[in-house]
Amino acid sequence: MHLEFTAEENAFRATAREWLVANVPRDKRPDDGPGTREFDLAWQRRQYEAGWAGINWPKAHGGVGLPSVHHMIWLEEAGRAGAPPMGTLSVALSHAGPTLMAFGTDAQKAFHLPRILQGASVWCQGFSEPGAGSDLAGLKTRGVVEDNCIVVTGQKVWTSHAHVADYQELLVRTDSSAGRHAGITWIICDMKAPGITVRPIRTIAGNHHYCEVFYDEVRIPIENVVGAINDGWRVAMSTLSIERAGGVAGHMALEKELNRLIRFADDNIDDATGEPLLRDSRIMSELAELKAKFAGLRALAYTVVSREESGVPGPESSLLALYYAELLQRTQRLSMQLLSSDCLGGGSAQDAIDRYLQSFSNTIMGGTSEIRRNIVAQRVLGLPR
Ligand SMILES: Cc1cc2nc3c(=O)[nH]c(=O)nc-3n(C[C@H](O)[C@H](O)[C@H](O)COP(=O)(O)OP(=O)(O)OC[C@H]3O[C@@H](n4cnc5c(N)ncnc54)[C@H](O)[C@@H]3O)c2cc1C
Predict the structure, then answer these.
(1) How far is the CA of 172 from the centre of ligand 1 (A)?
(2) What gap in Å lies between CA 123 and CA 121, rounded to an integer?
(3) Which residues contact 22 (CB under 8 A, 6 or more apart)?
(4) Tell me: the pLDDT tens digits for 22-50?
(5) Ligand 1: which of 127, 365, 376 to mutate, judged by most atoms within 8 Å of the beta carbon?
């Protein structure tokens, strides 16, 4: 067990920090629409051109070929420097790319992986359906194998960034007579294919990042199958476990936000008492508790990454995702409680409201808190179903 970063890791951190401070875009990221896509692609291109794209992707796939701990350091430093989120590129970078590396054909890898790293394509994930979210194996979108195509008809929902995506990780049922987990196929869907209709959903946070996607006899070439026909459940489980292990280093950006809240509570006077907000015992104890929990979150992130490093796939990543999402919600709630009509730290009061409303989705997407608790109970603690 290593409790300290090595000299080489610290040197990597220093170089990454220096580059990020000089290169993080200072323009505000657009909140919505095609502008977010262009902004995210431009930021990815800048990282690629400077040799920072795909830090833990193997060199054979165009990455930098460093261990996961370096990737985590990079994400920590990106959070510290206030770098934009992966945003519309998160599906491509966090799990579509890695899924293709594990299961894709040589042609799929050669076409898609460079485009992802170079900031030339946006992906979305078409897994959930109106009747199949937590119970993903209940999916009904049909894929009929016909000549050299799979003809897809059905509907997906909550597809993040579908309206600005080029490609989709699409799960379809290709054999309805097989068991629930059999008969599913993972395909690369070109979002410009005829027969696809995308309808954005407006959320309580006021944005349109999520969509319904309808498929009306969409013809997808058979060479877009990832893995094998009817073997998509295995591929999808891998995609989901990579997705759940993502975001290991969200703690740095969140911790930065907490520190901003502490400063805000210290600098601003409570009208009722004439004292700084920080003197309010409830606020003080909530901030102290969050600070302690952040230390726990960081330790958990390091544990998950070091397990990955030793090749042990960790269901602990569900614990990390659960802990992170719930802490994020709690921090945004406190931020709302401390709000005045003045600006809060780096953003406006409206930004804080939007972040608070947006944080509700963190305990639903990528698996709800209940599902994550089930995974932790069964696979980490070994409890019965
Ligand atoms: C903002 C947002 C973005 C999303 N982005 C995407 C995306 O890009 N691509 C995609 O495919 N999907 C996406 N999703 C969908 C997401 O994965 C599902 O919403 C999620 O898996 C829950 O499924 P559901 O909404 O059908 O709820 P349900 O599965 O119907 O769950 C309803 C409630 O029942 C609980 N529940 C269900 N089963 C169990 C159980 N076995 N034990 C205990 N409790 C249970 C759940 O925790 C939840 O509280 C997104 C969702 C949101 C909110």
Answers:
(1) 18
(2) 7
(3) none
(4) 999 999 899 888 899 999 999 999 999 99
(5) 365
Residues lining ligand 1, judged by CB closer than 6 Å? 124-128, 133-135, 158-160, 210, 361, 364-365, 367-368, 370-371, 374
pTM: predicted TM-score of the whole model, two decimal places = 0.92
Residue 233 CB partners (closer than 8 Å, separation 6+): 137, 181, 182, 184
Q: Which residue has the tokens 């349109």?
A: 208
Ligand 1 center–CA 44 separation, angstroms: 29
Tens digit of each residue's pLDDT (9 = 90 or more) over 267-276:
988 888 889 9
For residue 91, the ligand 1 atom closest to its alpha carbon is 8
Task: Show the domains of the chain with their CATH numbers.
Answer: 7-122 (1.10.540.10), 124-231 (2.40.110.10), 244-380 (1.20.140.10)
Partners of 149 in beta bridges: 146, 221
Catalytic residues: 243
Distance 134 CA to ligand 1 centre (A): 5
Q: Measured between alpha carbons, how far is 345 from 339 in angstroms, rounded to an integer?
A: 11
**CA angle (326, 155, 240) in 5-degree steps:** 40
**Token duo for residue 307:** 């397990």
Q: Which distant-in-sequence residues (6+ apart) come within 8 Å of 343 by Cβ?
A: 349
102 Cβ neighbours under 8 A, 6+ residues apart: 238
Residue ID of nearest Cα to ligand 1 atom 26: 133
DSSP 192-256: TSTTEEEEEE--TTS---EEEEEEEEEEEEGGGEES-TTBHHHHHHHHHHHHHH--TTHHHHHHH
Residue pair 93/116 in contact (Cβ under 8 Å)? The answer is yes
